[in-house]
Amino acid sequence: MLALPSRAETNLRFEVGIKKGLATAPQNGRLLVVLSRNESDELWPTLDDPGTNTPFVLARDVTNFIAGATGVLDGKSIAFPIANLSQLPAGDYFVQALLSVNEDLRSPDAPGNFYSAARKTRLDPALGGKEVLELSRQIPAEKLPRDAKLVKFIKIPSPLLSQFYGRPIYLRAGIILPRDFAREPHRKYPLWVRIGGWGARYTSVNKLMGDESEFRANWLADKTPRMILLQLDGAGPLGDPYQVNSANNGPYGDAITQELIPYVEKMFRGIGKPRARTLSGLSTGGWVSLALQIFYPDYFNGTWTFCPDPVDFRAFELVNIYEDDNAYVNQFGNERPSDRTVLGDVRLTMRREVRMENILGAGDSWTMSGKQWGTWNATFGPRGADDRPSVLWDPQTGIINHTVAEQWKKYDLRLVLEKNWATLGPKLQGKLHISVGDADNYFLNNAVHLLDQFLSQADPPFRGRIIYGPGKGHAWMDITTSQMMREMEAATGGPRGN
Q: Secondary structure of 102-168 in the HEC alphabet?
C-alpha cells in the first residue's frame, strides 16, 4: 500500500513561471500564490483583509526571474493564515499567482506587477501533487485620470526624492477647484491640504466629486467658503509615506512643502502664504495633518485632525514601545487585540495582522509589506545596515528592540511637543483641532488622551481643542465638513482679489 506523506511533510507544490515575451528583463520581487474558496477573476485584491475572509497565501522572494525560470512554493514557504501548506484543508480552490515587482508603489495592484489567470483546482496536502501556474498578464502602466472642469490631477518629478532614491520619483495629487474658479481669473484662493486614511490615493477626489456625493453638493453650494483642495497621495516605495521626512521614505515632508504645494499654488492661483494654508486628515491622515503642522509650524495655519494614528508611542495602539517587552502579548500573558468593535469584541490580534504582513513583505518581514504596520515601521524607524527599515519587533515572536524604539522618539508627536513647547507653543496657538471616538476601533483614543494630558496644562496655553465622542468608533468627527471649512475660512481670511 502506498504510504502518504504526513501533513507536516506535504509533497504539494506550486510551480510558477512567466510567459515568454511578457517581461523585457529579469524581474526581482515578491512571488505569491493565493488560494481562495471564492470564485473571482482576480484574487489578489483580497490580500488587504487579514480577517475571517482572508484567502490562504504562500510567498517567497525571487530574483532574476525570467521566462524559463520556475518559482516553487511548497511546505517550506511562509504561509498565512495556516502555519504551513501541510495544514491547508483539502477541497476545491481558485488559485492565482502574483509577482509584485513595482519598487515605487508597494502594493499588489501596482502597475507593472504580473499575475496569472485564476483557475479552479482540487488540492489535498495529504495526496500532494504539482500545480503549474503561468504569469501571463501584467497590470497596465499608470495613467492619470482624466481631468474635469473642477477636478484636476498632477504628477510631477521630485528632485528631492529622486536624489534620495537614486531614480526618478514622482509626486501625485488630486485637485478640486472652487466653484467659480474659471469665472474669476484674478482671484486667488487659500489652500486646504487634505490627507485620507491609510493608503488613500490622490484619485479619491473623483469620489468626493461624484454626481451623488454629499461633498459635491456642499462644495458647490452658495454659502460654501471658496478654497483649493489638494489631496495628497498615500502611496510610495514602502507603502503610505506619511508625508514626513524619514530615514527610510526620504524627505517627503520637504518635497510636499518645497515642491508640491508651491507648484499647486502657482498653477491654480493659490494665495501662497502660510496664513492661507490649512490641513485636515482622518486616521493616517489625522496623524499626517498633525505632524505636518508640528514639523512645519510656520508653513501652515491650522490642522483639523480626526482619529489620528498613535500620537504618543506609550500607546502605540495597545503597546508601550518604550516599556513593554513584547508587542503581541500583554503583561497578563494574553494576545493583544489590534481591532475591536465599539462594544469591545475583538476582531483581530496584532500577531495575526503582522503575520499577514510578513507574507507580503520581502524577507518574510512585515517591515517591507507596504501595509499598515510596515508603513509605521518604515516611517518612524531608523534604516538598517541592509538598507531596509530596522525592525521594531521580531516578526515571529513580537519581542521589542528597545534600541530601535528609542529612535522612534522623533516621531512621537506628544514627546516632540513636550520637549519643544517653548518654541512650538507660540507658533501653534489656536492651530490644533483634534477629535477622536472614545471607543476607537484601533484604540487610538488612548494616545490622544496622553497628548491631552500635556496640552491641557501646557504653558503657554495651546488654545486649540480636543474633543472626544463617547461610545464612538473610528472615523468619528466632531464637526461636519461644512463647519470645518467655515473654520478654515475664518483662519485664512478666504479668497483674495476680484
A: CCCCCCCCCCCCEEECCEEEEECCCCCCEEEEEEEEECCCCCCCCCCCCEEEEEEECHHHHHHHCCC
